[in-house]
């Protein structure tokens, strides 16, 4: 009997009919054929970091952990091919040996490469797309048991569907990533008045390589993060080891865990706690390897909803969320996070065809997120928001079709590659309709 599987947030769980741990591409394709023979659906799992049921596998669960590491390297093109089960946190040390880096990363690196690309994970920066835009080729085990190599250049008509498919078109075996020469980031982090940041949002985003901010509800302060790309040999000091440990582990994780638990038990204390958090997470100015600046450890568990909005409406949407929280009298301990991305041409990308801003709301694991998320989601809907595929939302195919110009084109590719819905699960039926 298979063991119960839960995702990182604990919201999704399932006991698969069976678990298979393939050690190679042929074993993966064989496991797919065996599932089809037995009439069972198939889903591959990575880190389980999606808050949605994207990886839920009631039939055959494919544990892809053995399919990791460097597969090949093209030095002329600066491209690496890695196993789909490779964790994002393993990419920087692998690439640094080659003098390379990923062009952009999100702020969490616990996901696998396949999971991050498939759900539309992104970083921040108006000139940079999500992680899926860094892919140039993929090997996929399809529903007929074939191993198919798709390429951005060789398969231009199918690639906009293949590159970001929420796991609906097959099982990713390996991914080829377009890298860049290794670089550093000069990071400046500072608390600023929220109203000033919102008023200057457009210029702050376009004037920096990477800009984001966090707003703690019940305060008037935003914690801004401005990162500038500099050569790998540029002068500048990294944070001292003890300072980084105190900031990232003691303050951002241990202390914040205690304050979240206190806020959950005594909600009236949340505004004071948030003001304290804003003071503790103060000024920092340092230069370090890009991956060390992009990502931070997140050990406090939470639930999250994130939407992609047209970038120009982001300030108004944040103001609406602030008014909502005040009017409801809620006590929200987790910050609201705001980032940006460049437009791209991937059919299911949340940044498809438009300059994009992202707003993410969170609740501590021990708090009920549903009322807060539902009300904020209504605001996002008013502004034409698209939900992150790996984070909580209630949208379904009926209204998602209106948000994605190539929604039906994607479904046509799905019909061609998986007509029997071998890779379907309840979440995919919700968002695709069948």
Automatic annotation (TrEMBL):
Any single GO CC term annotated in Swiss-Prot or TrEMBL for this entry: membrane
UniProt GO molecular function: D-arabinono-1,4-lactone oxidase activity; FAD binding; L-gulono-1,4-lactone dehydrogenase activity
Pfam entry (one): ALO
Domain FAD-binding PCMH-type: 12-182
The entry's keywords: FAD, Flavoprotein, Oxidoreductase
Protein name: FAD-linked oxidoreductase
